[in-house]
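User: Before I run my own analysis I want an independent prediction to cross-check against. Here's the chain; please return only the C-alpha cells and, at the end, one sentence I can use as a sanity check.
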Amino acid sequence: MFKYLALIITLAGFSSSANSSPTAPAEQLALLRQPTPVLDLQPASIWDLPVRDRFVLVAELEQGRLWVFEKFAGTRLEQVATYPITIGKQGFGKTQEGDERTPVGVYRITSQLNEKQLDDFYGDTAYPLNYPNSWDRLNQFTGSGIWLHGVEDDSVQRPLRDSDGCIVLSNADLQELGQYLNIGYTKVLGVPQIKWVTNEEISNSRHKLTSRMRLWARAWESKDPEKYLSFYSKQFSDTEKNYQQWASYKRRVNTNKRFIKIRLSDLGIYAYPGQDQLAMTEFYQNYSSNRFHSKGWKRQLWKREADGEWRIIYEKGG
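Assistant: C-alpha cells:
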C-alpha cells in the first residue's frame, strides 16, 4: 500500500490549451489534485543529486505542472511543492531554433534576471536554463533563450501551450519557487510524463552505474590505455573528437605518466528523459599525475549498449 498526499494547488495563471474545451481548466486542476505517491515511489529520472543540490525541479510537460522535490536520506526524494505551468505552443521536444517547443532533458538554472532587466512580457523575474546542453549539442539541436519566467499580467490565465518554448509560471508562483533555487546549480528536468518507480529500483540503478564509474576511474589510474578505453563506446563523441581521435589522444597523453590519481565527488545521476538506456552524470573531478593537476566539473553521457554494459558516449569538463 502506497502512502499518498493530496495536492492542494490554486489555478492562478493557468488555463487550458488553446485547442481544448472550456471545461479543460477544471480537468487540469483535477489532475493536479490527484493523490501522489511521496515516500514509496520516486521519479524515475533522478538517480542521485550532488550534495549541494537540496532541491530538484521536474517539469511534467504533458500535464503542465512543475514539481519541486527535496532530497532526504540516501536517494529518497519528497515532493514539497507543485505549480501549474505553460509550455511551448507546439508542445515539447525542442530540436530547432524557433520551433516553439519546450526541451526535454536535464538542465541547470544558470542565472536570475530581475524586472529591471526584463520586458514586461516576462513578468517579475526569469531564470535562464543551459539549453542547449551536452545531449542537445551532441545531436546538433539548435536554439537558445529557454527560461523559467513569469507573466505580464497575473489576472490573465495563459493556455497550457502558449509560450515560445519557455516554462511559464504566474508571478506569485515564481516568487514562491525562488526559495528552492540555488542559482548555478539547481536542475530542471523536462519530462513528457513522470514515471514513478520504487526507491529500491532507483538505488539498484544507481549502484550499477556508480560501480561502473568506479571501475572506469580505476582503469584510468592503471595507465592501461586499452582497459581504460574499453569504457568508451565506439559511438563516442565530445563534439570535437570521435572515438578514434579520442583513443589516439588518450594513448598519447597517458603514455609517460608515472602515476595517475582520480577522485570523484558531488555526483549527480539522471536517467535521461525521453531516451532509453541513457544516463547523464556530473561530478567534481580531482585529477593528479606526476605531470599535471586539475580540479573541476565533468559531465558524461553513459549508454547501456547491446551487450548490457554501460559505456561513455560523451565526456567533457567545465
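Sanity check: Residues 1-38 have pLDDT under 50 and may be disordered.
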